[in-house]
Design brief:
With 138 residues, the chain is of the alpha+beta class. The chain folds into 2 domains: 68 residues, Roll (SH3 type barrels); 42 residues. It is 32% helix and 30% strand. It contains 3 helices and 9 strands; from the N terminus they run ααβββββββββα. A 5-stranded antiparallel sheet has the order 6-5-4-1-7, with no helix packed on it. The protein has a two-stranded antiparallel ribbon with strand order 2-3. β4 and β5 form a beta hairpin. The protein is extended.
Length: 138
């Protein structure tokens, strides 16, 4: 590596930002979206005092008003309490569950997996029926 690369502070800054940005996700939210809101952990000095089994997110919450490009006013739906101005860094998308025919909860992302499982289950059910018919014949 040549030393010329490190003499220019702007180039160094771009390299650092580029490496940092590789690990970030660009999420865009709009008013009315449903989200989870991260619960900040309480700390005494450098030690976190939040329990291991405590929830890390609260929600579902609705984004009411956009204050800045990265800040929203948030309303918790279950008790209609406004959580105030919240940065998008603390938000996570919420997907409403879908109830399928078997009365089990499925999210939108699980639909393709469940379709594969249903076809496998149907094939297995048919083979079980064939086995039962053979046993009744004997």
């Amino acid at each position: 590596m040549s030393m010329e690369k490190f003499k220019n502070p702007k180039k160094i800054e771009l390299i650092i930002y580029g490496k940092y940005d590789r690990h970030t996700t660009d999420r865009r939210y709009a008013e009315g979206d449903l989200v989870w809101v991260a619960i900040p952990t309480k700390q005494i000095g450098e030690n976190s005092i939040a329990g291991k089994l405590q929830p890390h997110y609260q929600g579902p919450c609705r984004l009411i008003k956009q204050l800045t490009p990265s800040t929203f006013t948030v309303l918790r739906i279950n008790d209609n309490i406004q959580l105030g101005a919240t940065s998008t860094d603390r938000l996570k998308p919420y997907f409403e569950p879908i109830i399928n025919k078997r009365n089990t909860t499925v999210t939108e992302n699980d639909q393709t997996t469940n379709e594969r499982q249903r076809t496998t289950t149907n094939i297995n059910d048919e083979s079980m029926d064939d086995d039962l018919n053979l046993q009744n014949v004997k």
